[in-house]
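Action item from last week, closing it out:
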Amino acid sequence: MLADLLNRSFFAVAVPASLTLCALFLLLRARLFPIFSPRVIRFSLFGREEGGGTSPLSALFSALSGTLGVGNLSGVALALSSGGAGAVFWMWVSALFASVLKYAEITLAVAFRRFEGGKPHGGAPLYLSAAFPGRTGRALSLLFTFFCAGGALFLGSGVQSLAVAETMEATFSFPPLLSGLLFSLFTLLALSESAKKLSAVTGRLVPFLTFLYLGVTLWILLARASLLPALLARILREAFSFRAAAGGSGGFFLSRAVRYGFVRGLVSNEAGCGTAPFAHAAVNQKLPAAQGIWGIAEVMIDTPLFCTLTALTLLLSFDGAVPEGAGMGLVFLAFHRAIGGLARPFLAAAVFLFAYGTTLCQAYYGCEALFLVGAGRKARKAFLCFFLLFSLSAPLLPASFLWEHADLFCSAALCLNTSALFFLADKTGELTRELLAAVSASRSERKKARRTPRAALRGEGPSSRSPSGRSRKKESPPPQAERRSFR
């Protein structure tokens, strides 16, 4: 098929190359190395900045609901069955570069956002127009919106509905069409274009799912901790199993482990695709770069943490080699081997809630992209209707068809989005320096606040200083008169 041909012949090279080269260019050109400083991260995550919109933490949960989905389960299983254990290593590598892109795209989305009706709206269509002024920027914004809407349909609607149908069929013997119908009805109940309503729904789902999934997978890994060193050695060994004679960097990018590691990592954390900035642009944050740090946290939670836990669980269950098969079927079998009968209710609940949050978030992304290019309410409602119909029919479509087109649209959006990040690197650097200046000013204020009580205790307050600012010398008391003794 055309999608598979493009993925194998073009995007297999273009995605890792765009991800790597753009991230390196941003690090060097915009001098982004200080953003990984603990001091900068602490200030951005725990500092208090107010503006108009949702809170930064709610925006993180909204974006996580779009990334923590079936890509962390079915996508990882397919990556391991296609690319081997070495794909895990390249997921880690892609996450390091992806965190830079996520920081840059969120920073630019907040910087170029606009307010309509008192609500902030921002995303890739706006900073694409800023990077390429005139008709070129308008055309690229429309093209990106097409890729974003296509990705929302295949990844946000189709893949999620298929994963729920596969899980329900394996767990409760539900017919696929019935699962698609129920999933579409639940989606219809909660679907909304309001960022605050989305944050209210996902803000409850994501924390619960996060700790539940972390607890179960960590328990599985601790039970087999003695096997982890050999498994990690196998991951590193297979990561570099491609032949050096395959053509240098060309052979590197065409390696199956690299291809599936990068692409599945991209589908999982969506860094560089330009989708998560839609959620982050609606924050009450005055410093754009401070919200970009939340994007780094998002990538680190998604890929190095969640995808790694899933991958290690799968590899331990299948003795290091995941066979070919349906993505959710492999996940179900792996968890069934690890925790027995508890796998059925656990996976059924986890997959449904993961997919549900991702579907709502992707629907919002598609509507927001259409809104930013000027689409009216009728056009957005038509998109949502098609979104729901696709969710209903997706369980009847081949999994390869859905995944190939999800990869295609995400990869195309990434290549277009990274071109804007490349041309706006100087703007990203300027916004980063603004954040660093705020961090330095905050640190100076804290030091000054700590010194003031100490000075007061030493008696060096304002009352003890002369008009010139110098400390007054304490006057010595007059010598006491000698007492005369009368004999």
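Closing note: The first strand starts at residue 114 and ends at 116.
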